[in-house]
Amino acid sequence: MSTATSELLAASSDLLNVTAAFVAGLKSFFASGKNLLIKHSLLLITFVYLTVLLALIGPSYRFLTMLTPFTALGIAVFGDYIYKNFLQDRAGVASTFFGAIILFEIFYSVNNQIAYYPVDASPWISSKVRYENYNWGYNELGDFFVKELSGRAPAIRFDAKYKFIEREQDKFLAYAKRRDFELYPTMIVTYGNFDRGAKLWVLDRLHIYRGWPVIDLETYFKYSAENGPDYYDRVGFKNYYFVLSSNIVPSGEFRTLTKNVQSINILNPKNEEAFKIYKIVIK
Predict the structure, then answer these.
(1) d(Cα 6, Cα 126) in Å, to the nearest integer?
(2) How many helices (H) and strands (E) does the chain have?
(3) What pLDDT shows up at residue 227?
(4) Number of domains observed in the structure of the chain
(5) For 105-133, what is each residue's pLDDT tens digit?
(6) Which band of pLDDT confidence, cut at 50, 70 and 90, is reported for residue 28?
């Protein structure tokens, strides 16, 4: 299923309950008059407005959060209508109907928020939001560097772009000096398709808060081209960690760079390879 189709289905599923409430509201209006329309005017006006808005801008995933409070109201109105018109005198059927909804909601919540990996990726059983906190293996990657850099401080750091970042790094270096941390001349180089949010939390924060040099492979080659192939050795770096995401085929340049270097495999909770780390030590 294409991304556009999935987003359309997700938008449609979120609008379904509001649509049902709208139809139920119209039917009740014709039966009960304008008082009911006034009672639910906020929901009806919002539904019309959001329908026009989504029709004009397209059912993009990022806009669906606007529907959340009104979807909840729509479900409440629709549920109340179903109960009063069909289930009020049928206690057994009502219990079964609402019990099934509650059980589905429990399953949906556990599947999306508690389970390591959702049972299904369709918009009906799991939310696309689950993609944002999917267990790709970044926690395991972070654990590796926590252990690897424990008791160490950067011997070399790049100039900070902002003063407040420089102050944070100075605080850590002062703390490391008091604790007699080992000065470790190392650089971390990333290559591949990294989720920006996860990379920020797991790797970039090592640079922001502690001063560890973290750059991507393109920047690494760019500096080498501008300053000479031995530039990093002249600066004083002795340890290099090349972090490769396993969802790409590495380029010839990268394979040459890490030739004859044994990789360290980082596995995600499903025991699948998420990252390869090539550690190069210059004697």
Answers:
(1) 12
(2) 12, 7
(3) 93
(4) 2
(5) 888 888 877 777 777 766 677 776 666 66
(6) low
Residue 88, class by beta-carbon neighbours within 10 Å (0-12 exposed, 13-18 middle, 19+ buried)? exposed
- Of 133, 160, 186, the last residue of a domain is 133
DSSP β-bridge partners for residue 57: none
Q: Which residues pair with 46 in a beta bridge?
A: none
Lowest mean pLDDT among 44-53, 139-148, 156-165, 219-228: 44-53
Mean pLDDT confidence for 138-145: 95
Amino acid letter for position 142: G
Alpha-carbon gap, residue 81 to 268, rounded angstroms: 47
In the chain, what are the helix, strand and coil shares in percent, each to the nearest 5? 60, 15, 25
Strand-pair partners of 214: 188
The C-alpha atoms of residue 19 and residue 75 are separated, in whole angstroms, by 10
Q: Same domain, yes or no, for 88 and 194?
A: no
Same domain flag for 207 and 152: yes
Query: pTM for this one?
Result: 0.65
Residue with structure tokens 């973290």? 214
Q: Write out the DSSP string of 21-52.
A: HHHHHHHHHHHH-HHHHHHTHHHHHHHHHHHH
